[in-house]
Amino acid sequence: MTFDTITETIDPHQGIVAASAVLGFAMNADVLTASLLRTLARSKPSGTFLELGTGTGLSTAWLLDGMDQHSTLISVDNDAACQAIAERFLGHDKRLTLVCQDGTEWIDANTETFDFIFADTWAGKYLQLDETLAMLKPGGLYVIDDMLPQPNWPDGHDAKAQQLVAHLEDREDIVLTKLAWSTGLIIATKKD
Fold first, then answer.
1. Is residue 42 part of a domain?
2. What is the rounded CA–CA span in Å between residue 84 and residue 55?
3. Among its keywords, does the record have Transferase (predicted)?
4. 3 in a domain, yes or no?
5. How far apart, in Å, do the first and last CA atoms of the chain sit?
């Protein structure tokens, strides 16, 4: 199977998974995380959503599934080949804006605030966390995954993850819950 033989007429989730396999991209959100994202997205009617780390668009598709028709989603990734898959299967959705740019540069230039941020890459999670949380509206949700040890973690990454958790726990402007479920999630909401 090649990327060109995967048709847009199949379910976008299946198409993204198949195209990801052809590309060799193995970093898609698992179905538990994706399902939770869809459910949480439904809690923000007419919401403004931000995804840092589009990948090939699987978690993007689940967020869109949960969003109502009055919501918008900006999804940022620096990998044009991955974003091409998201564009192919999801680009028709008028609620979605795909941005192919380095996440740290995008964060630096951004002036918008959001009701929901899913940080699924270094930018907004391990890099520029404070700037990203400043973009979160009061009552908004900040979600990160892959906080339990993963087989693809490089040496020393566990210490970075522990530092991130400690930093989030020390913040006084958010309330958070850590879930030892799926790949390990943290859900935080910003205080008024």
1. yes
2. 10
3. yes
4. no
5. 51
- Count up the domains in the chain and report the number: 1
CATH number of the domain encompassing residue 46? 3.40.50.150
Q: According to the model, what pLDDT value does residue 54 have?
A: 92
Residues in the chain: 192
Structure tokens at 62: 């689940």
Separation between Cα atoms, residue 63 and residue 16, nearest integer Å: 14
Round to whole Å and give the CA distance between 126 and 172: 18
Number of separate helices (H) and strands (E) present in the chain: 7, 7
The whole-model pTM stands at: 0.90
Residue 169 has what pLDDT?
A: 96
On whether the CB atoms of residues 28 and 20 are closer than 8 A, the answer is: yes
Opening angle at CA 101, ends 144 and 35, nearest 5: 30
